[in-house]
Amino acid sequence: MVRTGISCPRQERASIHDREETGARIAARIRAAKTRAEVSAALNHYDGGSVAKYTQMVESLDAAVGEVLAALRRSGQEENTLVLFASDNGGERWSYLWPLSGEKFVLQEGGIRVPTIVRRPARIDGHQVSHEPNFSPDWTATLLQLGGARPDPAYPLDGTSLTGYLLRGEELPERDLFWRVRANRALRRGRWKYYQDSAGKDHLKKAWERIAGGLLPCPPP
Length: 221
Fold this sequence. Notes:
By secondary structure, the chain is α+β, with helices and mostly antiparallel strands. Helices cover 33% and strands 12% of the residues. α1 packs antiparallel against α2 (36-43).
């Protein structure tokens, strides 16, 4: 849920004009860039945007997911199709991340702890909540196994298949999870997390439940 604090008109799609205008503005900045740093600045700009615009983007995404689910239902493929919804990073400046600290491009919990939704009615019971940690490469291994494929031995996967856990309730093996973005580093081992920020400062925190267990993604209404 996005808490905006303001009233925004419902809009199922950001207008084509808005998208074209934004794309043209960014493309012009890239063409005008003389150095690699200027290109990076053009791509990672922080001007523009608003809570209202962010709300429209979330509503547009929600409507698009609804169209996919409706198409599966109409085609008779809904029951046995695995639908996976996740994010590759935490929120940015218009997101509401309380009580987590950090955001996109930072390896604190606000930058990497994101919800994942899995749906396959014929094989996975609904209304379940799991607190088992996983990360994006796990889904490559999972989808390959579900599809009856094997990874190329020359290119071993970083992730672990979650198929047994999802379909048969098997326990996941203990393992270390690693993250790296820019100069940030992080390691998750059991209930411990090691974090090194871009300034080289180390952060070691234990007792995962004490830090994050039981906390809701936002304050209760």
